[in-house]
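user: can you give me the structure for this one chain? tokens are fine.
assistant: on it. calling the predictor now.
[tool input]
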Amino acid sequence: PDSKADVVVSLLVETWKLETPCAVLALPPSAASAALDRPAMSPRLDLILRRGLAEAARQTHGWVFTCGERGSFGAQTAGHAQAYGYNLGFESPFIAVVAGDRMLEDMSEVQNGKVHHYGSGSGLLPPGAKRVPSFPRASQARAAGKAADGLTKQDLDSRHTHFIMVDGGLEGADGLRDRLEYYISSQDVSGDGIQTPKLIIVINGDASTLEWVRGGLDDKDPATLTAVPVLVIAESGGAASDIWRYCSPESDTYLELPTVDSRHDEEYVAACARLLPEIEELGKIGRASCRERV
């Protein structure tokens, strides 16, 4: 978790032979807690997103970053996009930064320099941990997958092209991912003459997604150190839909906070009350700055 970003990027480029990125496309982080029931995205939207993300990564020569967990709508979308692009001959990197403590398979016995076949059955669940289903649509089973001791284990989405395993929990993995994305987007790593742009793409999500978006919009946030544009997929449900409903003047519920119901528990509603007004205000500042530059 303490790895330096430049060392990891050097590994990706010099050892794994990835082409240096001309853009960073970031999808939501891991859910910090078991999710409530979330409706699945429509097949039409799912198809649009996988095609759009695959094409965006190809045209921008970008790297796509996700949490890599199959229980995440964002990582699932990235996996679909990679598979779609691969069938068309695209070779865009889809990179998962994964918290080792959340992995379904126990990797404690894996040795450096040795090949480990993930999913081979050689890794067993730690005592007390529960399996989380592979697909977000299995919402009832996923909610039951939260163990009494708080250990929640996740399958990985195997359609990503590269995985960076980080020892420990979410804090270490999210921290390394923040440093990687900032290192790349704060300079011209590709040599194309412009600072590498970064785009946050919000697909579904929970309270941790609200925190992530708020940090991305704030140029004083210690994790990002700069404000970046945010693309909200309004019809994808979860935090993405709540952000659009609250922040968009086109919404019938503009500036109305969510209330407790079957899809919003008290903890999530409290996070919305704290973060949505800040997201809306920071978004206004960002739009004003764009108009001034134009």
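assistant: here you go. Helices lie at 5-15, 43-60, 73-87, 139-144, 170-185, 207-217, 238-247, 266-293. Strands lie at 23-26, 62-66, 94-99, 130-131, 152-153, 162-166, 198-202, 230-232.
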